[in-house]
Amino acid sequence: MRLRSCPSRLRGSVAIPGSKSHTIRAVAIASLAEGSSRIEAPLDSLDTRAAVECYNALGARIRTDDLHTWHVNGTGGQVSPPLDVIDVGNSGTTLRVAVSSAALLPADGGSAVFTGDEQIRRRPLEPLLASLRQLGASAVSTRNNGCAPAVIGGRLRGGSTSIEAVTSQYLSSLLINCPLATEPTEILVTKLNEQPYVQITLDWLDRQEIRYTNENFQRFAIEPRQRYRGFTYRIPADFSSATFFLCAAAITDADVEILGLDFSDVQGDKAVVDYLRQMGAEIDVTSTCVRVRGGSLRGVQLDLNATPDALPAMAVVGAVAEGTTRLTNVPQARVKETDRIAAMAGELARLGVSCTELPDGLVVEHSPIRGGPVHGHDDHRVVMAMAVAGLAAKEPVIVDTAESAGVTFPQFASLMQDLGADLELIE
Questions:
Q1: Distance from C-alpha of 171 to C-alpha of 71, rounded to nearest angstrom
Q2: pTM above 0.90, yes or no
Q3: C-alpha 340, offset from chain centre
């Protein structure tokens, strides 16, 4: 499927759907909990549905027939071996979190096999598998390449492990599941990218009164034989999804109100508001909305280590801003659904934008954005970023693999259209 995006003027208000990060953590913890849980206002997307199917396969009972509230009957930490291979689709978060949950299987209680789509089978998993082995579980990559497919068995005992968290998902996975280990766990973190995502996980542990110590995100000590309890939680809106609306409004002659964002939440991508303000965007934040009005922007240097998902959209903003924009310290963007640094450099170049790759980021020069066809790389964030580029281009931008937006944001095109964006899905 292709998405045609034409020069547009945005006006009106838009409500942002729930956070993917929170929804998947809610599904995982509710599935490991004793009793029943209610997840209110969850994000309904391909990634979160993958998490639901995964934890159903591990023994939870999750009902999603009410789209506004998902009901979960948990396993009490007693996960079951799945009857079939677990296919997580495109969901890296689901894969990384769930492999540690599968390590809670009894030592003689079978195993779980995880796979996913072509992108998932290229994304690194070995650092997490190695930590699970150090902590007593069985965890192997079937192709000996450190990626899925992977076979996981129990029992997660505890002990000491060190991990290089090139993706924060490795550390979050251990933090969520090690409280259910039979012995104390020590996690030494030799490298950590995307710290705010770990803080989201820690907030979930705190709400559950999980006992652990955190020494400056470099060492964690987790007490054993703890339990999760059923809960009711309303999922906050997703700042990562809001990024595309914030950026679209900033680069067009817009007046847009973005609703539902909670700045008290620890999601790292709320920093995008500050990034755009540094570039000269006029943004007012109130208790009810974020109002963005388009205007003159200037290039800046931004450290995106904590906000890697913002790189594609911020690269588009860089093309519109006067001068030079440098997006740095985000090497992990190369191991997402695709190499987003190379993908954005290549696709922006096809639209006439001067863009240079760095090992850990991009340098984008102010350039008129031409129209034309671009490749979405089957990556939801690349697709949405290039659609945003079309709103400020001279001619329409045609983005292929547009169906991948459904991984995290199925309503992206329709919500943009509600603001007056000239977007059209075409076969």
A1: 27
A2: yes
A3: 14
Cα distance between the two ends of the chain: 5
- Tokens at residue 278, please? 């540094």
Mean pLDDT of 63-82: 97
Rounded to whole angstroms, the Cα distance separating 111 from 57 reads 12
**Residue 394, number of CB atoms within 10 A of its CB:** 13
Nearest-angstrom CA–CA distance, 185 and 44: 34
Give the model's pLDDT for residue 253.
Answer: 87
Sheet holding 159-165, edge to edge: 159-165, 185-192, 219-222, 212-215
The amino acid occupying position 193 is: N
The answer to whether the beta carbons of residues 388 and 363 sit under 8 Å apart is no
Amino acid at 115: T
How many angstroms separate the CA atoms of 175 and 198, rounded? Answer: 9
Q: Domain range spanning residue 345?
A: 2-17+237-426
Which residues lie across from 141 on neighbouring strands?
A: 150
Retrieve residue 226's tokens: 């703890």
Taking CA 63 as the corner, what is the angle to CA 57 and CA 67, rounded to the nearest 5 degrees? 130
Domain boundary among 174, 195, 223: 223
Active site residues: 309
Which residues make Cβ contacts (< 8 Å) with residue 210, sequence separation at least 6?
Answer: 179, 222, 226, 228
Burial class of residue 9, CB neighbours in 10 A (0-12, 13-18, 19+)? middle
| Number of Cβ within a 10 Å radius of residue 386 | 32
Two structure tokens written together for 366: 């102010």
Q: Residue 140 belongs to what H/E stretch?
A: strand 138-141
Please give the sequence-ordered ranges of beta strands (E in DSSP) within 196-275, or none if there are none: 212-215, 219-222, 232-234, 255-259
**Number of domains making up the chain:** 2
298 and 411 inside one domain = yes
Alpha-helix runs per DSSP H in 270-410: 271-278, 311-320, 340-350, 380-391
Distance in angstroms (rounded) separating the CA atoms of residues 23 and 233 = 10
Express each pLDDT in 384-414 by its tens digit: 999 999 999 999 999 999 999 999 999 999 9
DSSP code, position 236: P
Q: Which two tokens stand for residue 4?
A: 């045609």
> How far is Cα 416 from Cα 10, in angstroms, rounded to an integer?
8
Q: pLDDT per residue over 245-298, tens digit each? A: 999 999 998 999 999 999 999 999 999 999 999 999 999 999 889 999 988 999
State the CATH number of the domain containing residue 280.
Answer: 3.65.10.10
